[in-house]
Amino acid sequence: MADHVPNLRAHNVRAENTHGRPFGVITRGTTGYNRLRRSDRWTVHHPGIRALLTGADAPLAVDVGYGASHTTTVEWATRLRTIRPDLRVIGLEIAPERVLPPRDGVTFELGGFELAGHRPHLVRAFNVLRQYDVSQVLQAWQTVAERLAPGGLFIEGTCDELGRRSTWVLIDAHGPRSLTLAWDPMDLDRPSDIAERLPKALIHRNVPGERIHDLLQAADSAWDRAAGWAPYGPRVRWRQARQLLVDEGVPLTPVRRRIRDNLLEVPWEHVSPSL
Questions:
Q1: Number of folded domains in the chain?
Q2: 90-148 per-position pLDDT tens digit
Q3: CA separation for the pair 239, 171 (Å, rounded)
Q4: Residue 45 located in a structural domain
């Protein structure tokens, strides 16, 4: 069973605590090489993100809560610089002992969701809010969104320890825009198995009557009906299942390129929690 027990230090965290102090709580800090590769690949091929970074005068990206190692932040910087070689990248950590010396063109600073006073064009926070209470998610989203540069974007998500199952929400100044589910084709028996790695805003909503539950059930149904393609492998089978979902009116974002991952991306309105 997935470990999504809230971090007890997350209680009583309030945005008004940002007067000169980082906003957030210390997380477990685990990370690993290529753990966020699925999100990174999606990011560098997203037309909106490419246009945002390409068009910025002095593009800045901030990685919130990079953990106990520089690994994923440096990897992110390397991949983003295929879009803009002059991109400035900053990693933020709320634990002072985790703030590292600069390396590989990345600087590291003390900070949290208040973004340490920066106004970045792109922000990422992975496996951070997973350790918070669900009631604090909207507050964190709003705190970041209010501090973005004009047109800025925020990617908030979670993944498993090896990065084989990954999900994220794309957020702008007006709120969440989309949900993306990405997984290693060899890692899941059924699409709904990714539910254990849903973002904090949705992980408790995978129950009958909720939109995210309906989406995952529809994906499983399409997967079952595409069983005839199983001999060709899970990638081919998923392509057929995905087309069935499109034919049935599920508003999936078109896949922009041939990819190794199984990918499912929908507008936020299609999965937003019921009130």
A1: 1
A2: 999 998 998 999 999 999 999 999 999 999 999 999 999 988 899 999 999 999 999 99
A3: 27
A4: yes
